[in-house]
Amino acid sequence: MYQLIASDLDGTLLNNEHMVDAYTAETLQTLEKKGIQFVIATGRHYLDVMGIRDVLGVRAHLITSNGARIHSPENKLIHEENIEPNVVQALAQTEFSAGTLLNFYLDDAWLIDQHSQYLLDMHQDSGFTYQISDLARHHGQGVAKVLYIGDHAHLLTVEHKLRERFGNTLYITFSMPDCLEVMAASVSKGHALQVVLERLKMSASQCIAFGDGQNDLELLQTAGHPRLMSNANPRLVAALPDVLKIGSNEESGVAKHLRTLFQIAH
């Protein structure tokens, strides 16, 4: 029945230290030997997720920057979509960025406007790191995602300003309470999952998907068998009231659920 497993990372497959635990890695490796295929679907940068995939020890399609990039298990670029340069330049101005850590994701770089030890710690499993840059003066070309990091209450005001200014011309979502992310309007993890399903000649009914954040909404709506983490964002839970909840990320909820489904000893 299940031939494809699609999972978010932070708050879902990774623990609260944003790292892979051995139990989860062993579970996925066991399933791969049974012929199950994988998709990692995350807001993180492609170069970052390559390192996490290596730690997991499995082949997997990579949906990154919330679907703005899709790579094959062989690291071939399958799909890409950027924000228009003039829009990127507008997003970088203090009208929106004041009081936040501003980030740009490009193909080969992660740019940030100031130092953050929190972000360095969050990416320790992959070793991927940022470059500090004057983003307000950036040309805006080749940007897959703009990310604002800050206090959730403040980011809610930024979200409101963005929606007032840009309406539906951008995809605006939270990946975590302190991470507000902006992509081109047609980008989403759900659209990207559909691209992968078509590439693999699979149907949604063969896919089980796991998520916890608002940016997982379309992913879970696309998969035939969606699962919510018990630690899922309340706005996501409210949007998907009938979706089955499993254990939390901190208790390896995805791995435990998969072991039960595939009758692997816990």
From TrEMBL:
EC number(s) from the headed UniProt entry: 3.6.1.-
Organism annotation: Iodobacter fluviatilis
Enzyme class (EC, first level): hydrolase
Gene Ontology molecular functions: metal ion binding; phosphatase activity
CC cofactor: Mg(2+)
Family statement: Belongs to the HAD-like hydrolase superfamily. Cof family.
Record keyword Ligase present: no
Name of the protein in question: HMP-PP phosphatase
Pfam families (UniProt xref): Hydrolase_3
Entry keyword set: Hydrolase, Magnesium, Metal-binding
InterPro entries: Cof, HAD-like_sf, HAD-SF_hydro_IIB, HAD_sf
Gene transcribed to yield this protein: cof
Magnesium keyword on record: yes
Gene3D superfamilies, per the entry: 3.30.1240.10, HAD superfamily/HAD-like (3.40.50.1000)
